[in-house]
Design goal:
Helix content is about 35%, strand content about 25%. A hairpin with a 2-residue loop joins strand 5 and strand 6. It contains 8 helices and 13 strands. A 6-stranded mixed sheet has the order 3-4-2-1-13-12, covered by helices on one side. With about 290 residues, the chain is of the alpha+beta class.
């Protein structure tokens, strides 16, 4: 029995440590997605060894598990702030969805100032053009076979400010708001390692430096959890912060694995955040009220 507990200890310990290695290799962020699972396994195995001759090792394992799980729990415990003057609606539309009218109705009902969209393909393309016309400003960028990325704003676009960043899954435009110019950005990242998320983020970071000329509001499907190196890199290059608390937006092998992989960033990182219904997609939408 002790042998099984020791084996489990080292396996879960290794996975927990690896989940912090996203800055070194993309595999680290893949392990970060399930960091709370690794911590739970490490804690259980450590408790199983607590009264054995390796008691110090067990205590060390419990401490590591506690510190690691705290990095996850901190993102869930962020409280909601009072609603601000501005609002953003974030939505992955699902490239083969055929009910864009439901999404349009929900966006109209929420009446946001900005909209960020991913998987704009098929019938969803009409949704983008309808919103761009109603709101007054929009920018669409080609991305991949699952669809494009787009931003919409009720404030006018600064002429010539549209950027597609090398078709790397991001669309940006600068708009004139009553409080000054703001960059509005939509982002759609690939799945993590062994897929190409780390390389994609590296390319985006190189191309996003121009965003530092004005405050950034950003929404997107990151395919990555908020405690990852991927999210930290995007926060750093945009000078914005993820608005919390963490909310589940996607269910893998529904409903067994519930993941918070869609995020909204604003300069203060504060605001009143809520999820919106699936509306024919496999991702829940996000709606944030915030101040610049």
């Amino acid at each position: 029995m002790r042998g099984f507990a020791l084996l489990g200890f080292w396996l879960f310990f290794g996975a927990t440590v690896l989940s912090f290695a996203g800055a070194v290799h993309g595999l680290g962020d893949s392990f970060a997605v399930f960091r709370h699972w690794w911590c739970g396994g490490l804690a259980v195995c450590s408790l199983g060894l607590l009264y054995k001759s390796v008691r110090r090792l067990a205590l060390f394992g419990i401490a590591v598990a506690g510190l690691a799980i705290a990095t996850v729990a901190a993102t869930y415990l962020g409280g909601s702030d009072a609603p601000g003057k501005f609002s953003l609606y974030q939505k992955n539309l699902l490239f083969h969805a055929n009910s864009p009218n439901r999404v349009i109705r929900d966006i109209r009902a929420m009446s946001p100032d900005f909209v960020t969209l991913e998987e704009v393909a098929g019938e969803n393309r009409a949704l983008f053009w309808i919103l761009a016309k109603e709101f007054g400003a929009g920018h669409l960028c080609t991305f991949s076979s699952v669809g494009d990325v787009a931003v919409v704003s009720r404030w006018p676009m600064v002429e010539g400010s549209g950027h597609c960043m090398g078709n790397q899954g991001a669309a940006a435009m600068q708009v004139e708001t009553p409080e000054g110019r703001v960059w509005v950005v939509a982002i759609h990242l690939h799945w993590p390692y062994p897929q190409q998320q780390a390389q994609q983020v590296s390319h985006l970071v190189e191309q996003m430096e121009f965003l530092q000329s004005a405050p950034v509001v950003l929404g997107g499907d990151f395919n990555m959890v908020p405690w990852s190196n991927t999210v930290a890199q995007i926060q750093a290059v945009t000078g914005s912060k993820r608005a919390g608390p963490t909310l589940v937006t996607f269910e893998l092998f529904r409903p067994r694995v519930r993941l918070p992989i869609d995020h909204i960033f604003v300069p203060s990182g504060k605001g009143q955040l809520e999820t919106r219904p699936l509306l024919g997609s496999d991702h829940r939408g996000l709606f944030l009220r915030f101040d610049l």
